[in-house]
Amino acid sequence: MKGSSHTTLTTGNIGIPKFDLTGKIALITGVGSEIGIGRAIARTYAWYGADLVIADIDEEKIKERAEEISQESGRRIVPVRCDVCNSEDQDNLVKVAMESFGRIDILVNDAGVVLSNDQLIVDTDEGEFDRVVDTDFKAVFFLCKRVAKIMIQQEQGNIINLASVVARVASTRMAAYAAAKAAVVQMTRCMAFEWSRFNIRANCICPGYIDTNMTQSTLNKEKAYEAITRPIPHNRKVGDPMDIAAAALFLACDCSDMVNGFPLYADGARSIW
């Protein structure tokens, strides 16, 4: 395709976009969980050719993930212990990435927490509220800011933030989490608007209920599982982390370079109700 920077498979005069991250450097947070979206995205990116800097608050787990992903993909994987709510940890994370690879092509903000004990609004204390908002929104904002400064100098970059279906759909016992994720959606739009002139894209993914370490305690309860899946039109089931990794792969590849400032809902059509 004339004028396109896509990696393509050429058949006659037709250029077919190809999913390829060869030569890309991705920084991904929240990768420590054994069953989690961050791990699924990291494995997928490495499989498609990217080298990675992966971060998590649990140092032992992030080293395990790095060894695992490196062995199965053959890519270079650099693990970093990072509390995303700590400014010094964020500075160190970016420093390690630049010292290791010299640039950052893709940033994926996946690290996040939910309210303890599924608290109602009237039961939510200020400390718990701050913990959720600081992790799920504030930390995302400032890591994007740090990495964007590098991407602006590079004159290219790709930011993918993980939000949630509850950014759009009201849900009981999740007000602080929902508000933080809604803020991520609008923040991402603003980033796309400000930084597109520097050839930087910013999009977010809004997963529905996904079977992860964070959700398993809820999903293992029969009544809760039924209540969660009943409103999902598509197959009435929860998703798999690899469902979200596929969306993240699309957004990371050059074939999606016309997609910017977009919240991609991967929720089995839950958000249209």
Task: Describe the model.
- Residues 1-5 have low confidence and may be disordered.
- The radius of gyration is 18 Å and the shape is globular.
- The strands form 2 sheets. Strands 5-4-3-6-7-8-9 form a 7-stranded parallel beta sheet, with helices on both faces. A two-stranded antiparallel sheet has the order 1-2.
- The chain has one domain: Rossmann fold (3-Layer(aba) Sandwich), CATH 3.40.50.
- It has 8 helices and 9 strands.
- Helix 3 (87-101) packs parallel to helix 4 (126-154) and helix 4 (126-154) packs parallel to helix 5.
- By secondary structure, the chain is α/β, with parallel strands linked by helices.
- For CATH, the homologous superfamily is named as NAD(P)-binding Rossmann-like Domain
| CATH level 1 class label | Alpha Beta
Going by CATH, the architecture would be 3-Layer(aba) Sandwich
Overall number of domains: 1
Average of the residue pLDDT scores:
88
Sequence stretches where pLDDT stays below 50 over 5 or more residues = 1-5
The ordered H/E elements are: EEEHEHEHEHEHEHHHE
Topology, number of strands = 9
Number of continuous helical runs: 8
Helix-and-strand structural type: alpha/beta
In what order do the strands lie side by side in the largest sheet?
Answer: 5-4-3-6-7-8-9
Helix content: 40-55%
**Major beta sheet, specifics?**
7 strands, parallel
Give me the Rg, rounded.
18 Å
